Amino acid sequence: MSAISVGQAVVLGVVEGVTEFLPVSSTGHLKIAEGLMDIPVDDNSVVGFSAVIQVGAIAAVLVYFFKDIVRIVSAWLRGLTNREERYHHDYKFAWWVIYATIPIVAVGLAAKPLIEGPLASLWVVAGSLIVGSGVMWCADQMGRHKRGEDDTSFKDAMLVGTSQILALLFPGFSRSGATMSTALILDLDRVAATRLSFFLGIPALTGAGLYELKDALGAGVGAAPLAVGTIVSFVVAYASIAWLLKFVARHSFNAFVLYRIVVGVLLFGLLGTGTLNA
């Protein structure tokens, strides 16, 4: 019997799609949803399922930013054989994304037992939600929001890409929250910070999903729940991306900060009263 039913996969697909690119922690929300549905959050097949359905959300990014991605990849391919093309920002940006992905891959492989074990606790999620809120609020206040996407540098990409490790080790911190906060501290404007977060997430999350696929299928999650969860996350994530880019163009991140604090406090309460099992 599958560890996750098709109905549960739909719910988790919606949660993943809504939260993957909002700075509120998709991993944290997935673990909360799994806990409420009595799905063991530290089960290898469940961890694998969560990583695989992220591919649906990443596919939404690929579709939404298709023209940008084609432009960047084309510049990179031309630059491999044409020296003049190597001065183009898109060519350099493609390499930056590749280099910035290396730290999270290395840590993810080295710390896999911790990530799937002690750090998968909902206590960690609750604490990370609240601590991450403080980081995000400070970053939004500190940042001067004066640099656009064309002003990004190798240093920006490496620092923002490396910050993804925080979300990897502390579910609840939020990959989007960590990357956007870092970009804001580096004085990127909110739209540039959000778009950079999207692009840096593509290789890391796609790789994680493909890496975990064998565990998800081999350890108790059927193909049907995986397919349903991935498709639902794609559809919902596409709508979420479109909404977020419009939102950050006109608003601060304060609404997300407040929401994260509320969820973190409620989660502490649910765990403390035994309503949820950590």
From TrEMBL:
Ranges that cross the membrane: 46-66, 93-115, 121-139, 192-211, 223-245, 257-276
Lineage of producing organism: Bacteria, Bacillati, Actinomycetota, Actinomycetes, Kitasatosporales
Alphabetized PANTHER family for the sequence: UNDECAPRENYL-DIPHOSPHATASE
Biological processes, Gene Ontology terms: cell wall organization; peptidoglycan biosynthetic process; regulation of cell shape; response to antibiotic
GO cellular component: plasma membrane
Protein name in the entry: Undecaprenyl-diphosphatase
Alphabetical UniProt keywords: Antibiotic resistance, Cell membrane, Cell shape, Cell wall biogenesis/degradation, Hydrolase, Membrane, Peptidoglycan synthesis, Transmembrane, Transmembrane helix
Keyword Hydrolase: yes
Topology class, membrane: Multi-pass membrane protein
EC number assigned by the record: 3.6.1.27
UniProt function note: Catalyzes the dephosphorylation of undecaprenyl diphosphate (UPP). Confers resistance to bacitracin.
Claim: Zinc is one of the keywords in the record: no
Molecular function GO labels: undecaprenyl-diphosphatase activity
InterPro entries membership: UppP
GN (gene name): uppP1
Main subcellular location of this protein, as a coarse class: membrane
Domain of life: Bacteria
Locations listed in the record: Cell membrane
Miscellaneous section: Bacitracin is thought to be involved in the inhibition of peptidoglycan synthesis by sequestering undecaprenyl diphosphate, thereby reducing the pool of lipid carrier available.
Catalytic activity: di-trans,octa-cis-undecaprenyl diphosphate + H2O = di-trans,octa-cis-undecaprenyl phosphate + phosphate + H(+)
